[in-house]
Amino acid sequence: MKQFNSVLRFELNGYFKSKVYLVTTVLLVAVLMIVLSFPNLKALFAKDSESAVQAEPVTRIEQLTAATSDPDAVAIVNQNGALSDDALVLLAAAMEGTAMHLTQDDASAVRGEVKDGTYAGAVILQDAQTATYIARDLTLTDTTVSRLYTAMAGAARYEALSALGISGAEMAAVLNPGVTVDVDNLGVSQTDTFFYTYILLMALYMAIMIYGQIVATSVATEKGSRTMELLITSARPNSLLFGKMIAAALSGLIQIGAIFGSAVLFYHLNASAWAGNEVIASIFNMPLAMVGYVLVFFLLGFFLYAFMFGAIGSLVSRMEDVSTSIMPIIMCFVVAFIIVITAVSSGNADSPLMIVCSYIPLTSPMAMFARVAMSSPAWYEVVVSIAILIASTVGVGLLSASIYRMGVLMYGKPPRPAELIKVIRMARRSEA
331 near 267, Cβ under 8 Å? Predict the structure, then answer.
């Protein structure tokens, strides 16, 4: 135990004194501070005149015809009186968030004004049901066309009902009926869980990829420099292996805890500025029980892969061979990540493939966590998955320890699978 503690302290000191570790942690914390404080920083440095300008909802035709020099406004050309004044007001009100300006210029003149930047776009109304939208640029996030379609449909219905002599109050009752829908959700709301599930899966993926490879590289470096020959004379191989594994896990947890902890802190300091943002609220309103699942699956998944990385690293004599040797493990992990992230993105966390993956040790740390976060698996499914993962991690750990004890003294090319089996058998015989 004394040897293990010495190795653990030495490895942790190495992580904490690493400039890359410290700079990365500080940089990510600083980025989160700026991002989560951005609304307040923007309000602090905004000009008074800009902060005072607020878009008023369009309620009468005079507001549409008022002069404007806003380059973000959309011009309306009402050809041959295609829509009545009331219908134009209804259309502009439906285009909430977009400044609308009714112009007397013809279509060709407005096209030139859009091109030279006077307007962001223009709507040419041919009749109550036909329009042409002129855009300066159509960006990936431009929703003007879809919103215009909905607004035109509402205006056309208004004109049709008005032609039938229906009063304004009756139109309002038809066009905007007071519908109430209550939701009684018996399971999980994926709208609330999607974003933090995605973020936590990415964090697990990055932690295993980065720290797992650090373990393999560290072992290979010590072996290549012949430092390992000195280490095993003063500490048992098991102490060396498990000390490295636990140190890597602790340093990863501390780094992730610092990053996510600072995010929670800065969010609560700027909570008022993020009021009404459902995406941000869903991320930071993660249930406390989910934190427990994160820790369980993170630790078990990390140790499972780290043991394999450490065992492979002990078989490599040169740093150049590390990437090639650990490639099969990386490919397995990448495939598992793609399967899970695809299921999460599609909202189908309980697909047959995901159910199978939630019991396979190489995929269950991500698959079962995703199912717990985005669906409602039975409690015994979670227990069985965790039990299989614990047994697999312990078994892989013992197997890796056997490989490590023999591998650190083997030089030359990494052994083939058949030779590796012989090494393991020899290790077991020596233990017996």
Answer: no
Distances (CA, A) of 348 to 37, 45, 359, 417: 34, 44, 17, 37
Average pLDDT score, the chain: 80
Residues 34-84 have pLDDT tens digits of: 888 877 777 666 544 444 444 455 666 777 776 555 678 888 999 988 888
**Share of residues in the chain with pLDDT > 90 (%):** 12
Q: In whole angstroms, give the CA distance from residue 219 to residue 348.
A: 40
Q: Tell me: pLDDT of 423 over 70.
A: no
Tokens of 258: 């610092």
Of residues 394, 399, 248, the one with CA closest to residue 312: 399
Contact partners, residue 187, CB within 8 Å, separation at least 6: 375, 376
Order of strands, sheet of 121-127, starting from the edge strand that comes earlier in the sequence: 100-102, 74-78, 121-127, 130-135
Helix (H, G, I), strand (E, B) or coil at 334: helix
For 312, the token pair is 């492979």
Q: Which domains does the chain have, with CATH numbers?
A: 2-38+189-431 (no CATH), 61-175 (3.40.190)
| Number of residues written out for the chain | 432
Q: In angstroms, rounded to a whole number, what is the distance separating the alpha carbons of residues 196 and 219?
A: 34
Percent of the chain with pLDDT over 70: 83
Cα separation, 393 vs 391, in Å, equals 6
CA distance 337 to 389: 17
Phi/psi at 185 (5° precision)? -85, 120
